[in-house]
């Protein structure tokens, strides 16, 4: 749920993962090294977190970043 609007995410978590995988494939075919790394890290964070929240909820992202990274 989005805390600002109280709405559910527009996509399901599996759909979100597929979008991230697609972005990684696109970047691997001509993206800059920065874009490739960002796409890869985004996918890794999503898979480890198991939800969309860290990408949309700033406070949750800040709190989770330490537990995900370490």
Quick gist of this model?
With 70 residues, the chain is mostly helical. Helix content is 70%, strand content 0%. The protein has one domain (13-69).
Provide tags for this entry.
70 residues; mainly alpha; 4 helices; 0% strand
Q: What topology does this entry show?
A:
Layout: H1 13-28, H2 33-49, H3 53-56, H4 58-69
Helix pairs in contact: 1-2
How does this model look, in words?
Helix content is 70%, strand content 0%. By secondary structure, the chain is mostly helical. The protein has one domain (13-69). The N and C termini lie far apart (26 Å).
Structural class call reads mainly alpha
The succession of helices and strands, N to C, reads: HHHH
> How many domains in all?
1
- What's the β-strand tally? 0
Mean pLDDT across residues? 81
